[in-house]
C-alpha cells in the first residue's frame, strides 16, 4: 500500500523519503486528482500505526506525507498532534487545492508548525507570481518539478532568484522528477539543495555504501568516507546494470582508486 521514494542532498546522501500510496488498479493521478479528506487522513493514520517504531526518535531521515490543503485545514489539530508525537514526520501540501490566505490570518498559532514541518509541493505552479508566495507563512521547504522549469520561465518566474531568497536559512529546496544526470546538474546549478526522482531512486547512498536498484546484478560497497562524486556513481550504475561479473568493476575501481567490494544480489 505504501512505498518510499528517497530524497538526497547535494552529496547524494539520503536525508528523507516521500511516502507514496500505491493501490493496485487505481492510479494516484485519478485517486488524488481532487481532495479526498477521509481517504487522506485514513492513509495517514494507517501509515503511522504501521511504521510507528520507524517514525519514533528525533534523529534520522524524515518521512513526508501528502495532504491536500483542504484536508490539512479540516484535520489540522489531529495532524499537528501526531507530528508532535513523531518528530520525523513532515507534511507535504500538494497543489490540488489552493491555499487559504485568510485561514492563516485567523490561525496564527499554526505558523510555527508550518515553518517547521510543512513542504509545499509544486509550489510555483500554484501561484501566479513569486510575490504571491509571500502571502502565506514561509514553510520548511519547497518542492519544484524539473518538468516545470521551462513553463515557469515562460511565465516570467526566475527559479534561481526564488531559490536564492530562501537559501541559507535551513529550508529544504527540493527538485523532483529528476530522470537524467543533466537534469540533476541543472537543478544543482539553480541552487536546489535536495533531489528526488527516478535517477535518485535508481541509485542512492545508504550510509557508507552505494546500492543500485533491483535491476542490477551486483551491489557495490564503498569503503571509507571518501565520496566518489555523482559522475563516478553514474558510471558505476551503468557497469552494474550491464555486467554480471565483477571484472569490469575491478578495472574500473582500480583506475578510479576506489576501495570497495561487491556481492551478488539475491
Describe the structure.
It is a single chain. This protein is an alpha/beta fold and 266 residues long. It has two domains: 2-202, TIM Barrel (Alpha-Beta Barrel), CATH 3.20.20; 208-264. Helices cover 39% and strands 23% of the residues. The chain is built from 13 helices and twelve strands. It has helices at residues 28-31, 37-50, 52-55, 69-74, 76-85, 101-106, 111-117, 149-154, 159-166, 181-190, 198-202, 230-242, 247-256, and strands at residues 2-9, 14-21, 62-67, 89-93, 118-121, 141-145, 172-176, 194-195, 203-206, 209-212, 218-222, 260-264. It has an eight-stranded mixed β-barrel with strand order 1-2-3-4-5-6-7-8. β7 (172-176), α10 (181-190) and β8 form a beta-alpha-beta unit. α12 (230-242) packs antiparallel against α13. The longest helix has 14 residues, at 37-50. It is globular and about 55 Å long. Mean pLDDT is 78; it is low at 205-226 and 259-266.
Blueprint (SSEs and pairs):
Layout: E1 2-9, E2 14-21, H1 28-31, H2 37-50, H3 52-55, E3 62-67, H4 69-74, H5 76-85, E4 89-93, H6 101-106, H7 111-117, E5 118-121, E6 141-145, H8 149-154, H9 159-166, E7 172-176, H10 181-190, E8 194-195, H11 198-202, E9 203-206, E10 209-212, E11 218-222, H12 230-242, H13 247-256, E12 260-264
Parallel strand pairs: 2-3, 3-4, 4-5, 5-6, 6-7, 7-8
Antiparallel strand pairs: 1-2, 1-8, 9-10, 11-12
